[in-house]
Specification:
The protein is mostly helical. Helices cover 85% and strands 0% of the residues.
Length: 72
């Protein structure tokens, strides 16, 4: 849990700093630093779902393709 919390703090800090440097606005920097991680979390959830389907399909194909090596 400590690793997750430190990553969240790091993510917030980077989002705030980059936005602040680009806009010069503390308010916009803070808003982006709060909104971006929330949106990123939702996107990551769907990204994981897609990858699990891809991996399951790959695993399924690997198990159904006959081996070309002769049986012993």
């Amino acid at each position: 849990m400590k690793k997750t919390m430190t990553f969240a703090i790091l993510h917030f800090s980077v989002a705030f700093t980059v936005t602040y440097l680009l806009t010069g606005s503390i308010v916009i920097g803070g808003a982006v630093a709060l909104v971006e991680p929330a949106v990123n979390t939702v996107v990551f959830y769907f990204h994981e779902k897609v990858w699990k389907k891809i991996e399951a399909r790959k695993h399924s194909v690997e198990n159904t393709v006959p081996s070309i090596l002769p049986a012993s």
